[in-house]
Each structure stands twice: as structure tokens, then as C-alpha cells.
Amino acid sequence: MKTKPLYSLIAILLALIPITYFGIKLTSPSNVTSQHQTIIFIHGYGSSASATNSLAKQTQQDLGIKNRLKIRINGHGKNNLENSEISNNGNIIQLEFTDKDTSEKDESKYIASVTKALKAKGIPAISLVGHSMGSNVALCYLETDNYSTNKYPTVHKLVTIAAPFNTGIDQPDDIRKQFKNNSIDSETKLPKLQDGNFKFFYKNKDNLSPILQILNIYGDVGDGTDGKISNFSSESLNLLINKEQQYIEMKVTGNQVQHSEIRTNPRVTKQVSKFLSNT
Question: Which of 193, 203, 267, 265 has the alpha carbon at shortest distance from 233?
């Protein structure tokens, strides 16, 4: 578990004991209360909104947010937000991309249409929670500078779960296999192998808001992977943010930590709701 400067003392203390999971308490800006937050959940590639049910239900229960809805987005970016009830007292929004082959960049663009509409409906701030590719989509959205203008809600918190930030998925098969044994270059302090995602995120990391708080969660089934994504790939987020960023990295071991299972792991869903809460 790794932390940025604000949590250096905690990191030192925790290093003295064998622990992979602990409680996190971070606060939202004083003008946003727990039950008045709008939180958007983003599923992974080829999945659906139901994949974020456990996360959404736990957060709704713990934060006391009454309004929960699903926004469906088709392959052309059209969504049903206009016909959905949005509350100024808080919302749990589960996105569903109905075209399973929608690319990460298109998904981030389509999310921008949703968030812009939310701002027009009086929602000033949001938080994002992504699983697998949904994490990459959220980060792509946050690092696209034109989405950071006042036409869009401020993003206070980002949660990434089982994220493939540097897997080599856009590389030939023989190169992709090498990504499983990727390592840090001693001179550049960056991964020796970098895929298109990593290069984009690294190039645009200065677009991240300094007030953004990040929780990065990944599972280890015992071989340095979650059964699908290497821990090295998920941990790469640490290299894709700014030094002043409030960042917590959490590795979860034991039962129910496989790539698709971790999103329903009770320890994880509870931890996510704690991070999103300001109480």
C-alpha cells in the first residue's frame, strides 16, 4: 500500500506490520455533504451497469443517497439522461454502454456529454468510480483539458479498481506477453515497456486537478496479478499523477480478489464508500 506526501507518516507506521487493507478517511470540500454527492459508476469493457451494482448499493446505503439511476449510452453517444430524474440532494448514477465495443476515448467523450448535462441541471460536482477499463475511461476524461472547464462539474474524487493502465493491449501478441514481466527503468524511473494508454496518461497528467483525491484498488491472487491484469499495470497509476495529488494505493489479498470478483468484494465496496464519504 503506497501513499503520497499527506499520508507519509501513515505509510511509515503501516510498514511495520503486515497489512494489505485498512480504513481510509478523507474529506470532501465543506460545501459537499455525503448524502448530497453525485457519484458516477463506470463498468469495464464488454460489461454492463449491473457490474457496478454492489459498489453502487453499498455507497448508496452508507452515504444515505436516495436517488439511484442507470444512464444508458448507445454506440453513438446518445443517452437517456433527459428522461431521468436528477436530484439536487445527491445521485448514484450507473452508466451502461450498450455497444460493448465502444472505445475508451469514445466512452470518455460520451461521459463528457453526460456530465455537461448534469452541470446544466444544477450538479456542480461529481466523483467517478471505475472498474477495469472504466478506470481508464475515467482517467482519460479527467486528463482531457477541455472537460475541466466550468461547463462541466468539478470532480472531487476518483476510484479506480482493477485498472489496466499499462498492459500492452495495443501491441502485437509477442510484445503483450512481455508486459507481464514489465519493470521500472533505473534511469527514467518509468516502465521499460509503455503502451498507448500509459503514454497518453503520462503526457496529459498535468491536466489533473490538484484537488482531485484518488483511491486505486487492485487484487493479488498470489502471483502478482488479479488473474487478468498485472499488479504492475494497476500500480502504474502512481506514475501518472502529480506529486501534490492526494493518492492512496491499496492491494487486496485473500478471497474474492480476482479481476471480475473484486468489484463485489465486501471489503472493497465498503472501502470505496468510506473514501467517498466525508464523515
Answer: 193
pLDDT in tens, 58-100: 999 999 999 999 999 999 999 999 889 999 999 999 999 999 9
What does the block give as the cell for 36? 448530497
CA neighbor of 134 nearest in space, from 42, 268, 230, 229: 42
CA distance 167 to 189: 18
Q: Tens digit of pLDDT for each residue in 241-265?
A: 988 899 999 999 999 999 999 999 9
Q: Cα separation of 177 and 175, whole Å?
A: 5
For helices 104-120 and 133-142, angle between their N-to-C axes, nearest 10 degrees: 60
Q: Yes or no: say if 276 and 24 are a contact pair by the CB < 8 Å rule.
A: no
Largest Cα separation within the chain, whole Å, is 54
**Amino acid identity, position 203:** K
Model confidence, pTM: 0.88
Distance between CA atoms of 264 and 52, rounded to whole angstroms?
Answer: 8
Q: Where are the alpha helices (DSSP H) in 165-225?
A: 173-179, 196-203
With cell 481508464, the residue in question is: 136
**Can you tell me the distance from the alpha carbon of 275 to that of 233, in angstroms, rounded to the nearest whole number?**
22
C-alpha to C-alpha distance for 19 and 147, rounded to whole angstroms: 38
pLDDT in tens, 48-60: 999 999 999 999 9
Nearest to 239 by CA among 200, 181, 198, 270: 198
Which helix (H) or strand (E) segment holds residue 128: the answer is strand 125-131
Split at pLDDT 50, 70, 90, the class of 42 is very high
Give the whole-angstrom CA distance, residue 36 versus residue 31.
Answer: 10
So what's the pLDDT on residue 170?
84
- Rounded Cα distance between 105 and 96, Å, is 15
Torsion of CA 55, 274, 266, 154, to 10 degrees: 20
